[in-house]
Design brief:
- The complex is a heterodimer of chains A (271) and B (401).
- Chain A has 271 residues and is an alpha/beta fold.
- Helices cover 48% and strands 14% of the residues of chain A.
- Chain A is built from 12 helices and 9 strands.
- The longest helix of chain A is centred in the last third of the chain and has 20 residues.
- Chain B is α/β, with parallel strands linked by helices.
- In chain B, α4 crosses α15 and α11 crosses α12.
- The relative contact order of chain B is 0.16.
- At the A-B interface, α3, α5 and β6 of A face β2, α2, α9, β11 and β12 of B.
């Protein structure tokens, strides 16, 4: 691919601004296609620099209770892989610049058909994929085919990924590296900033790719602290909980955008 | 069949099935487990310990029993029961648990976790954890907790903490999700004892190896009793560990026919079943690619079976491979057929089988009458039915008023 990806462009622009990116996660179709699309459309204006859109799956084994429930709400409302791609196409009618990454598990992609999925995702305007249950040992399944479609494959590095394994994890990664700040599921305990800073430093010895930090980050304050030494911070569970708590779809949309604005202020005072 | 197809490749694939589809956090742990297991296989002291506990603690070898009255009743094949239900804790599950806890000890782990459906694997895990002085947490679906109360009590008595899983439908698959979430959170001290020939590599091959003692003993025993190999082997399949344990040592013997019996629930055509091979398509769940019950969108469909131990929407990857190779026949038996065979075994042989094993017996009821008297058929009686009294009373209660 000769074209510079949206992710590369966005991270380059933020680097010149000397601030970390805010990456926000919501599950597609939570709690309905329409309200989820409304949330999605308003995220860039509220301050999200990169959007992660969750593909709901019945058995999200790396997710904590909040995102598990979000997936079930979305499925209950009739969300499918096809509808998630439809949502992305609708988003792209108004926004050509914000990088959009799909996050989820392999089986729904496997069932959709890898080649068909990648070509539909590329034409819908997807920039990257985060697929939790595809370690580098299985790069030929989706990571390498995705590259052929010009879609970045974002790799997770974790506290258990040691220096010996790191080169393998990074080898075919593109877009950015997602550092999982605590061993555990999403929405768990808060990471210790000193330990995360050390880990991010170690990652930088192995890669030029931007490094995002996620898992357990919920507040603007944490975003500012972690954003001081990382290229992006990822918030998911806290946003998804806004949807869970909301009494009406309108409340959910407002609550997600409000929290996004707070977090955006957090990353802007990180350095 | 070549040696190649009997061992997974370096990424844990049997053909296109298996693999290591797990989150990165677990990858280093799984690679370490594999290295330790490879070393243990070569370690005479480990093998000696394993043999010792299998003999003096589990009570192996389990008898190969000529089920004379059942054979007479069917009027065909000569039926042998491999009496795994006589093992300590009442099922084949402990064969694997003993192996894995020795490995956990070797790796310096202090905390054991496991998932359980019918509770037999949970009981076997709680048992070995007690014996080796390790703390133990068992994840069990809330639906299963309700229908397997005696086993819940047994686990608690053995010192395990039983955590009810309400996510999803509260059955085995949800318990496995929750165990994986525990493992990803407690990476330093915890060993996950998976109870069946599924999960990420090396579990399918490792669990199979620990269960293969069933088939090896059967081979020796039938040679001693009959002077020749059996003509057919029959075993029930949820994840498939008792079947794989019986089948594997015979895979290279072309004359030995093998039949795996899936749980047909209310019938495969009704959609209410647990027959992954007969009613599913390949997909990826719980660390491996295999046949899964799933919808058009790749969402996992809940399994249904009267037997909690078979109530799982997947199957071990090696079974998926043997299915595609045509080496093993995979059939299904309904809840009603299993109950009928359950009663028959009680009355004819004075053996109360587990509802799981009753599925295998129901298939025998279909096959045996049409086979000649010199046809040697071995059925894996994988567990005893004491745990199922409440469920069976629910279904057959009226009959015994």
């Amino acid at each position: 691919m000769n074209t510079v990806s949206r992710l590369d462009q966005r991270f380059a622009a933020l680097k010149s601004e000397n601030r970390p990116a805010l990456v926000t996660y919501i599950t597609a179709g939570d709690t309905s296609f329409e309200s989820s699309l409304e949330i999605l459309k308003g995220l860039p204006a509220a301050g999200a620099d990169v959007i992660e859109l969750g593909m709901p799956f019945t058995d999200p084994m790396a997710d904590g209770p909040a995102i598990q429930k979000a997936a079930l709400r979305a499925l209950e409302a009739g969300q499918t892989q096809a509808k998630t791609l439809e949502m992305v196409r609708a988003f792209r009618q108004h926004d050509q610049d914000t990088p959009l990454v799909l996050m989820g598990y392999y089986n729904p992609i496997h069932r959709y058909g890898v080649e068909r999925f990648l070509s539909d995702a590329a034409s819908a305007g997807i920039d990257g994929l985060i697929v939790v249950d595809l370690p580098p040992e299985h790069d030929e399944e989706l990571c390498l085919p995705a590259a052929r479609h010009g879609i970045n494959f974002i790799r997770l590095a974790t506290p258990t990924t040691d220096a010996k394994r790191l080169p393998k994890v990074i080898e075919n990664a593109s877009g950015f590296i997602y550092y999982v700040s605590v061993a555990g599921v999403t929405g768990g305990q808060a990471p210790t900033p000193q330990r995360v800073e050390q880990a991010v430093g170690q990652l930088r010895e192995h890669t030029q790719l931007p490094i995002a930090v996620g898992f357990g980050i919920r507040s603007a304050e944490q975003a500012a602290t972690i954003g001081r030494f990382s290229d992006a911070i990822v918030v998911g569970t806290a946003l998804v909980e806004c949807i869970e708590r909301a009494a009406t779809p309108r409340d959910a949309i407002e609550a997600v955008h409000d929290l996004t604005r707070e977090l955006a202020a957090g990353v802007r005072r990180a350095r | 069949m070549t040696q190649n197809t009997m061992q997974p490749d370096h990424n844990g694939f049997f053909g296109s099935f298996g693999g290591r589809f797990v989150a990165e956090t677990l990858m280093p742990l799984i690679l370490e487990l594999q290295a330790e297991y490879d070393a243990a296989k070569q370690d005479a002291e480990f093998q000696h310990q394993l043999a010792y506990f299998q003999r003096d603690y589990v009570g192996r070898p389990s008898p190969l029993y000529f089920a004379e009255r059942l054979a007479e009743h069917f009027g065909g094949a000569k039926i042998y029961l491999k009496r795994e239900e006589l093992n300590h804790t009442g099922a084949h599950k402990i064969n694997n648990c003993i192996g894995q806890i020795l490995l956990a000890k070797r790796m310096g782990k202090t905390r054991i976790i496991a998932e359980t459906g019918a509770g037999m694997h949970g009981v076997a895990t709680a048992t070995v954890a007690a014996r080796f002085g390790m703390s133990c947490v068992i994840y069990m679906g809330s639906t299963d907790i309700e229908r397997q109360q005696p086993n819940v009590f047994r686990m608690k008595l053995l010192g395990a903490e039983v955590i009810p899983v309400t996510a999803g439908t509260g059955t085995l698959k949800d318990a496995m999700n929750e165990a994986l979430r525990d493992w990803v959170t407690n990476v330093d001290n915890t060993f996950y004892i998976i109870g069946t020939v599924a999960g990420p590599h090396p579990y399918p091959a490792m669990v199979r190896d620990f269960q293969a003692v069933i088939g090896r003993e059967t081979r020796d025993q039938i040679m001693e009793k009959e002077g020749r190999l059996p003509d057919s082997l029959v075993a029930c399949i949820g994840g498939g560990s008792n079947a794989m344990g019986l089948f594997h040592p015979f895979l290279g013997d072309e004359s030995v026919k093998m039949i795996g019996v899936e749980a047909g629930g209310k019938g495969v055509a009704t959609g209410k079943h647990a027959a992954s091979l007969n009613g599913g398509v390949p997909g990826v769940l719980h660390g491996n690619r295999t046949y899964l019950l799933q919808d058009e969108d790749g969402q996992i469909i809940d399994a249904h079976s009267i037997s909690a131990g078979l109530d799982y929407p997947g199957i071990g990857p090696e079974h998926a491979w043997l299915h595609e190779q045509g080496r093993v026949d995979y059939v299904s038996i309904t809840d009603d057929e299993a109950l009928e065979a359950f009663e028959l075994c009680c009355r004819q042989e004075g053996i109360i089988p587990a509802l799981e094993s009753a599925h295998a017996l129901a298939q025998v009821a279909k096959l045996a009458p049409n086979l000649p008297h010199d046809h040697l058929m071995v059925v894996n009686l994988s567990g005893r039915g004491d745990k199922d009294m409440l469920s069976v009373a629910h279904y057959l209660g009226d009959k015994f008023k």
